[in-house]
Write a structure and sequence with these properties.
single chain; alpha/beta; TIM Barrel; eight-stranded parallel β-sheet; four-stranded antiparallel β-sheet; 10 helices
């Protein structure tokens, strides 16, 4: 009998399949598959007040993936708590809320409101621009990453997972900084910064000029970073970046991830999370793996 259970920061997931923030809507995604099939549902980013996001065009297809510059559009934490959380409560699936902000205080306002809800964990997107530092992302250097982690850890009554940006020189330094500052887990990678030009119109395709590259094109970078971070920290890791199949999920687990998130794949195939879970089980059956730990230890 295969055991898919995984413990992330003291929270037991019945399987390692989660959704990537920004790509999951309980009501929309739930029209294609049973959300109870997931180990955890990671929500879209939630801010302290409503964010309009960027003007269009803000999505562009690329070789092996896509660019997006949505701008973290969301209705704000109060709307989220009143309208989305009640719907999510009906499912036997762990709920992880992605939190965004432009200052540490903005992040903390959201976390404080989420403290009194039934959610299981908080994922903190530190790829957001710190407007007090001239728009540099909180995850761009270890000092800023450490500072925001400490402040959120101080006020959060939920486990916190820090979502790291890959747009740095040394991902392990950022990972070690957030672990030392009290992070309960790490998710990586967020999107890689990219750009596409319309050579006929002679201008960038995206209104925002640059956007986040996701999909299979970034998977080798994501696997490499998970592998490096696993050897630098001891806290749990959720790996993501181009997971399209069950074998992709296995690759992340062998690199050192404890769970995986499915993002772009679900935009192409809305049933991708449950399909990938099924393919993971098939791989384990075919190769004699009884639990996830055996996969994680396969390369040791």
């Amino acid at each position: 009998m295969i055991n898919l259970n995984v413990n992330i920061a003291g929270v037991l997931l019945k399987n390692p399949i989660t959704t990537a923030s920004g790509t999951f809507s309980a009501k929309d995604s739930g029209a294609f598959y049973d959300i109870n099939e997931l180990g955890a549902a990671i929500t879209k980013g939630v801010s302290n007040v409503p964010w309009d996001g960027n003007p269009t065009p803000r999505i562009a297809e690329t070789y092996g993936g896509m660019l997006n510059a949505i701008g973290l559009q969301n209705p704000g934490v109060d709307n989220f708590i009143n309208n989305e959380l009640p719907f999510l409560k009906q499912f036997d699936t762990k709920i992880i809320v992605n939190v965004v902000g432009k200052t540490i205080n903005e992040y903390c306002e959201v976390v404080e409101k989420l403290n009194d809800t039934f959610i299981d964990m908080i994922e903190v997107n530190i790829s957001c621009p710190n407007i007090k530092e001239g728009g540099i992302s909180f995850g761009a250097n270890s000092a800023m990453a450490s500072e925001i982690t400490k402040e959120i850890r101080r006020i959060s009554r939920k486990p916190i997972i820090m979502k790291l940006t890959p747009n740095v020189t040394d991902i392990t330094e950022i990972a070690k900084a957030v672990e030392a500052a009290g992070a309960d887990g790490i998710s990586l990678i967020n999107t890689l910064l990219g750009m596409k030009i319309d050579v006929h119109q002679k201008k960038p395709v995206l209104w925002n000029v640059m956007g986040g590259l996701s999909g299979p094109a970034i998977k080798p970078v994501a696997v490499r970073m998970v592998y490096q971070v696993r050897r630098a920290v001891s806290i749990p890791i959720i790996g993501l970046g181009g997971v399209m199949t069950g074998e992709d999920a296995v690759e992340f687990l062998m690199a050192g991830a404890d769970a995986v998130s499915i993002g772009t794949a679900a935009l192409v195939d809305p049933t991708a999370p449950v399909r990938i879970k099924k393919e993971l089980i098939e791989f384990m059956n075919q190769n004699g793996y009884e639990n996830l730990q055996q996969i994680r230890e396969a390369m040791l």
